[in-house]
Amino acid sequence: MNTILVTGGAGFIGSHLVDRLLTTTTARVTVVDNFSDFYAPEIKRANVRAHVENPRYQLIEADIRELDSLRAVFAVNAFDAILHLAACTGVRPSLEQAVDYEQTNVTGTLHLLELAREFGIRKFVFGSSSSIYGANPNAPFKEEFLPLPISPYAASKAAGEMFAYTYSHLYQIQTVCLRFFTVYGPRQRPDLAIHKFARLMTEGKPIPLYGDGTTERDYTFVSDIVNGIIAALQYDQTPFEAINLGCSEMVPLKRLVELLETSLGIKANIDRLPMHPGDLERTHADISKAERLLGYAPTTTIETGIQKFVEWFRTRG
Length: 317
Prior knowledge:
With 317 residues, this protein is α/β, with parallel strands linked by helices. Helix content is 41%, strand content 18%. The chain has helices spanning 12-24, 41-47, 67-75, 91-94, 98-118, 152-171, 193-202, 222-234, 253-264, 288-294, 302-316; strands at residues 3-7, 28-33, 57-61, 81-84, 123-129, 174-180, 183-184, 207-210, 216-218, 220-221, 240-245, 250-252, 270-273. Helix 7 (193-202) crosses helix 9. The longest helix has 21 residues, at 98-118. It is globular and about 55 Å long. The chain starts with a strand and ends with a helix. The model has no long low-confidence stretch (mean pLDDT 94).
């Protein structure tokens, strides 16, 4: 792959992916990001500060909801692959902003697929989400499970996958949809639990805990996720696949707080709240398909990952 488009490449996962592409490949990397104000745009600008000095890197500020602007980008770049990570993210905000989520996560994804068709791009990797499994009571979650989304965010990701399948089938675009399970690590968005809890704890403020602390998540360190994305970029054996990328270890919320307390050396003050209607009781990835097709093998335990996050977090203050 000589020229790669990364949408959302200034964000948390995207900027780590670009790091890897620029340091371990010879590819030219174009990033499209709209620097939305969902969280402070200056955080994303800091993420790309080192990238813009690389001669193989190009940053374009554009919105995937605007088809004509995107088409102008494609018209002057001969992309070999699209790594599509741009999205409206987060379950809870989506309950109040369902239309925005549909426009970005569904229509924006459709725009990219349409341009892949129009410009003859034959490789498409889509950043999907474990949230599409929704209220499924069976764990670990397997790719063949029927999506049961219980939030507009989850529904928008499921719809994106359906469009990706359709375009793969109709136009021979080799496509991999990667279902990410609770990604964390350095540069994590400030609204996500680990980052939010660490900030509140260091400020001496209570942390909000929804439910009784027994909800469980399959936390996946960002470098493991990037390994999976790179492997998906290289995968070419089948025309379409949906693949889980997780750690395959469930961590209770109360255990997560304990790990943060240990790493930060601060006792958390808990503000207990009722379960949020869009939240899941648990997420748990069956990663056997990723292991088989991509050679995916996560290596970062939650204990090591939290320590790495805290080391980065302390440099931010």
